[in-house]
Structure formats: C-alpha cells, structure tokens
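Note to self: keep these together.
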Amino acid sequence: MNSASGWRGELRLRYHRRGPRTVAFDAHTGPLRVLQALYPEGEGVCHHVLVHPPGGVVGGDELHVQVQAEAHSHALLTTPGATRFYRSEGAPALQHTRLQLAEGARLEWLPLETIAYTGCQATNRVTAELAPGSEMIGWDVLALGLAAAGQPFAGGVFSQHLELPGQWVEGGRIAADDATLLQGPLGWAGHTVCATLWFAAGAALAPVRRSALVEAAREVLQGHALAATAGVTSPQAGVVVLRVLAARVEPVMQLFGAVRAAWRLQAWELAAPPPRIWKT
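Structure:
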C-alpha cells in the first residue's frame, strides 16, 4: 500500500524441505514480489528473484523482507537489478531484510548492488539469525552515486547496518559532506564502492574449516585487480568476512562471484552456477 509519505512493502518467504526438494511459500503486501521458483541445480536448491516494480526507493518508502529457511532447506535469493535509493525531500527511506535460518538450513543472500543517489536519506539493514548447524553466504555492495555517468554522491546520508546477532555487527553512517570518511586514507580513500561478502555459521566453525575458507578467498584475491583494496578476515569463530573498496561495481561483482564459488565448493561441495537472471 502507499500513503502520502510513501510506499510500504512487505515480502515474507518461507522455505521448507519436503523430501529431496526445497519448497517455497510467499506472501506479500505492497510493491514487493518474488518471481517463480527455479531449480537450475536440482530440487534441493530453490532460486528466487525478488522484484520491486516501482524501480526505486524514495523518501518515506519502507520495504521489509522476511526470509525463513526451515530445517535442511537451501534457498538462493537475488534481484534482477540494482536497488536504487533516490533523492528525498526530507522523509527517510528504509529497507530492512531479516533472514532466519533453522538447524541445518543453507541460505544465499546475493542481491545486486545498492545505489545511493545524491540527496537520498536512507537506511539499509540486514539481520541474519542463524541456528546451530545452519550456514549462509551473503553480500552487500554499496555504490555512492553513478560515478561513471558523472553523477557523484554530492548530498544526502546513507546508513548501513549488517548484523549477525551475538556474532558480528557492522554499520556506518555515510554523509556526502564527510570528507574525512570518503576521502581519507582510513576511510573510503576516494573510492565510490564499498562491499562486504561473508560466510556465516550458527555455531563456531572448526578451526581447520575456518582457515580453509579464509585461504580460499585469499587464493582468489592473489593477482586480482582489487587485491590492493580488499582483505579477508574472521572476526568471530563463526564468521569469515571479505571487504573491498573499488571505483566501479563490475569488478567487485566478478570478485565476489569467484569467492562465493570457492566457498561453496569448500564448505558445501557444490558448484556455483550464476543465477540465470544475472545473464539477462
């Protein structure tokens, strides 16, 4: 539904393991949808594409996505294009994604990039709650403005919050007039893209497995064009994180796709075919 202050959209997704198949159930209100479930890897992994027909998020809009992956299900969620936060006349915009994984569930949260246009007043929150025995791969790619098109992030504020309760929290307030953050060597250092990729488990990873995930990412980074502005670490026993700064989105997505493939093979013994929507 919409009001004078903006749109409010809610999308609820639930994934259930029925024999060898991951079955999806969805419900929505307002301008959020999910396309038909696809099974390009076989019945065990359900691929879903989330769509927002208005095409962008403006001041006053609120989008809420809730995902429940039940025991031993495996779902992959992505988007057909960038999420765009446009200029606001004063009212803030909010997108909040809550991911809940039951024991033995696997989830891949792989949206395409988020673009913060000049003048936006927006918050993007992602919260992932993992039960023991569950695991996920997720990423978040934020681009400030459209640098290649000569449209810099010249005004506005974008707030980011990524959280795995009890394990890892990362957040920031990015104001267009904060030169120390955006231009300083300890901040964005003049880059316009900041991205985070993580592998997370609901309990501590075995040390050998944790080290293998870190090394798998480092092997991909060796010789990569973004190696100088990227790094991988394990801030907690159940989390491995790769962060990168860049001038453009495309090399970040290429890097993240390669690391995701390495982690998928290392952790789950699965190949990583890219979702079909990324090729259209």
